[in-house]
Write a structure and sequence with these properties.
CATH architecture of the largest domain: Beta Barrel
CATH superfamily of the largest domain: TonB-dependent receptor, beta-barrel domain
Helix content: under 10%
CATH class of the largest domain: Mainly Beta
Number of domains: 3
Number of strands: 48
CATH topology of the largest domain: Maltoporin, Chain A
Length: 789
């Protein structure tokens, strides 16, 4: 034991004393002053380098008093700079956007094959905006669905299903704050406005220890900081919505602010048509988003950020009339609908203790609520009497979080860095609440539902080091615990990823991660409706656990113009929940804890990604082969059954071609094996007494269906092509563009769901319901930069 401690001490000491000179600073966009996340700084002579963190900060050791450095970021011109140093110093770099029409090959930088991180991909706002859109709305989550290993739930949906996991198993972070429902328009669009986003990272496996709380993926979305040099505005007018973003300096090179909003106008455009065909009834739907973020640099070592997001969807039906015949007045008003929305906010403080130790402190608040409601008022009046009656009923569900976390980055030397921190979240769950108010007595008992309070704690440490010249390891431990009612659930989750660099064009990677999740999502359907309920673990419902192993390789082809990655994975999941047969969220006689079955799941498969990042023509081809299964003792007679989204083959092709300064063409093609479904396989007509008949002894025939094993059949395969054409134009005040896109170019009738019907002689048939056929759309986009030189 003494010898082991001595070796560890010598190793750590050597890591601390190898470096002679350290440079640190920030890497920024030269035009806007915004920090660049994950930018590379590289010393070609020693083949040593690092990447900037989430706030653009880097720290690098130099092996002498002079060095030549290369600083690069995708889409920006590479800087090559010779420096002479006499001691530790601070150097900031500003990168210019590259000429998008030229072929850019970045050499000497740290490509993805050198990173220990695997099963991950970064997506820029430019990538998101370049992909053809449904109804003219570019969408973050739809872009993520085009990655291998990520599947959509159903036609047009923004649902995310990663490596066999459910939608609740994705940790979706907006500036570090969890977002619980990321869908607009019943799942067809996400809540993220691309104009307000700077960077998106998706992690499907090999999770770093700093992330926790979900089983299947991390989707880390960063909002723009705002232009620190000039005021500018950008936005767009589309088929169903418009958006506008304004950003600029609070004080030049010191602080900035960005405000971004979006609203649909489906309700306004459709209202006259609906009223004309519904005798005055008003049926409508709308959603809106608003993002705001401000930051200020108080010194070279201190900077604060304040950010917020709010969004709301509402679908409603209103009806009202008033009748006056001279002798009596009959007045009636009624409104029913469903509404849901998110609110998130975060306050962050960055502090640089030294050129090696960086701290980020974050305080967060988030809220998600949904409500089904019905409100009515009636009045009847005559010369002698008047009667009024009010009625209100609502079904509500929601969750609130208060959080505080500390994240430290400690740079020992170029081959060794530490991340460590702690996180606390106070949860307030309201899985279901029913409110009823009326001027008359109800003939049912109103259920008593109370909030559930939970305390979630976590600490982590993450160590990235190079034990040998070609081997790099990221090892860590995420320890978490959840306190609810009288129960305490601890969890220790080891994580490790390793990269072996065979050459400067080929590397092999492997990872293992254990994850714990203290939340569940009770799903009523497969299309991401807001009626899906967020519920916590309790004394009856245990936490979810997962173990995932992945191996893969990454290769550069043709001098780095292309990269190829191949991965295989196996994931095991425990304590999953689903509604029992016949149960749903409106069954108010039972508590939600008594409606669910608990079981296990597992998935395995292989993923292939071939990608070209730079040049006039770029894009990627992704392919996924996967197997996803479930087993619940109380479902399907305890037999194993395929997960609803067990999609054997999944293919995506994404292309973008910039013809010249004015014209750009983009296209996608996707193919997926049909979703698993349960269908009736036999029908028995039984003679029975009709309880609704006024005549005693009246009998009629009723149909009883016998169903297949759970998810024993598949819908037809899903495939479609989308294309978009954009014309850019430079103006004195900025730039503008017109985008015309076509969704489902060859008008494929893709299945949304399957229905059954009986003909006149009692025969049962199946019908496919398709949602979106060929849909053209247009968007006008603009950027207004009046102060830019």
């Amino acid at each position: 034991m003494k010898q082991l401690l001595l070796l560890i001490t010598l190793f750590v000491f050597s890591q601390l004393t190898l470096a002679q000179i350290r440079i640190s600073g920030y890497i920024k966009d030269a035009r806007t002053g915004e920090n660049l996340i994950g930018a590379n700084i590289w010393q070609p002579a020693t083949k040593q380098g690092t990447a900037s963190n989430t706030y653009g900060f880097y720290s690098l050791n130099i092996g002498g008093d002079t060095a030549t450095l290369e600083v690069s970021y995708v889409g920006y011109q590479t800087i090559r700079k010779s420096i002479k140093l006499e001691g530790d110093t601070n150097i900031n770099f500003e990168l210019e956007l590259s000429d998008e029409l030229s072929e850019v090959v970045v050499k000497g930088t740290r490509p993805d094959l050198e990173l220990t991180k695997m099963s991950s991909m970064k997506i820029s706002a430019q990538d998101i905006k370049a992909i053809p859109a449904l109804l003219g709305e570019v969408d973050v989550l739809k872009t993520i669905q085009l990655m291998p290993g990520v599947q959509s739930g159903s036609e047009g949906s923004s649902g995310i299903y990663v490596r066999g996991g459910g939608p609740d198993q994705n940790l979706i972070l907006l500036d570090g704050v969890p977002v619980y429902n990321a869908s607009h328009l019943f799942g067809f669009f996400s809540v993220f406005n691309a104009d307000a986003i700077s960077n998106v990272e998706v992690i499907k496996g090999g999770f770093p220890a700093r992330y926790g709380g979900r089983l299947s993926s991390v989707i880390d979305i960063n909002m723009k900081d705002g232009n620190m040099k000039n005021w500018q505005a950008e936005g767009g007018i589309g088929l169903i919505s418009s958006r506008l973003s304004v950003e600029g300096p609070i004080k030049k090179d010191k602080g900035s602010i960005i405000l971004s909003g979006r609203r649909t106008y489906i309700d306004i455009l459709a209202r006259p048509l609906i009223r004309a065909n519904a005798d005055g009834a008003d049926l409508g739907y709308f959603f809106h988003d608003f993002n705001a973020k401000a930051n200020y640099k108080f010194s070279d070592k201190d900077r604060i950020y304040l950010s917020a997001y709010t969004g709301k969807d509402k679908f409603y039906a209103r009806d009202e009339y008033e009748y006056d015949d001279g002798g009596s007045i009959n007045e009636y008003k009624d409104e029913a609908g469903i509404q849901w929305g998110n609110f998130t906010t975060a306050g962050r403080w960055n502090h640089l203790f030294s050129n090696q130790l960086f701290l980020n402190t974050t305080a967060t608040y988030s809220q998600y609520n949904f409500s089904l409601f019905n409100e009515s008022y009636s009045r009847y009046a005559t010369a002698d009497d008047e009667t009024e009656e009010n009625f209100y009923a609502s079904y509500n569900s929601g969750i609130q979080d208060y959080g505080l976390k500390l994240d430290f980055d400690y740079y020992l030397n170029n081959g060794h860095s530490l991340k460590f921190g702690a996180n606390y979240i106070y949860h307030i769950f309201q899985p279901e609440a029913f409110n009823f108010e009326a001027d008359f007595e109800a003939d049912f008992d109103q259920p008593d539902t109370k909030p559930i309070y939970g305390n979630e704690f976590s600490v982590y440490i993450e160590d990235e080091f190079e034990p040998f010249e070609k081997l790099k390891v990221n090892a860590g431990l995420h320890a978490s615990a959840f306190r609810v009612r009288e129960e305490f659930y601890p969890s220790f989750q080891p994580r490790i990823s390793a990269r072996y660099l065979v050459s400067n064009k080929l590397s092999f990677k492997a990872s293992y991660a254990e994850m714990a999740q203290f939340l569940h999502l009770l799903t009523n359907s497969g299309i991401g409706l807001p009626t899906d309920l967020w519920v916590p673990v309790t004394d009856k419902i245990k936490p979810q656990f997962a173990q995932q192993t992945a191996i893969g390789m990454s290769s550069l082809i043709a001098d780095g113009k292309y990269d190829l990655s191949i991965e295989g994975y196996y994931k095991n999941m425990n304590n999953l929940i689903e509604y029992k047969e016949g149960s749903n969220f409106l069954n108010l006689e039972e508590s939600w804890e008594d409606k669910v079955a608990v079981g296990d799941g597992w998935s395995y498969g292989a993923e292939f990604l071939f990608r070209k990042k730079e040049g006039k023509f770029n894009g990627w081809i992704g392919y996924t082969l996967s197997y996803n299964n479930r087993q619940f003792d109380e479902l399907n007679f305890g037999r194993v059954f395929p997960y609803k989204y067990d999609r054997r083959h999944d293919i995506s092709v994404v292309t973008n071609y910039r013809l010249n300064e004015k014209w750009e063409i983009s296209g996608t093609w996707v193919y997926g094996t049909g979703n698993s479904i349960t269908l009736p396989i036999a029908k028995i007509s039984e003679l029975s007494e009709n309880p609704r008949s006024e005549n005693e002894g009246y009998y009629g025939y009723s149909d009883v269906y016998q169903y297949s094993d759970r998810n024993a059949y598949r819908m037809p395969a899903y495939h479609r092509a989308d294309v978009g054409i954009t014309r850019h134009k430079e103006k004195d005040w900025g730039s503008s563009s017109w985008t015309i896109s076509v969704y489902n170019l060859y008008n494929r009738q893709n299945p949304f769901y399957i229905t059954t019907s009986n003909n006149s002689i009692g025969e049962t048939s199946f019908s496919q319901i398709s949602l979106f056929q060929l849909i053209p759309s247009f968007t006008y986009n603009f950027k207004f930069r009046p102060n830019e030189k």
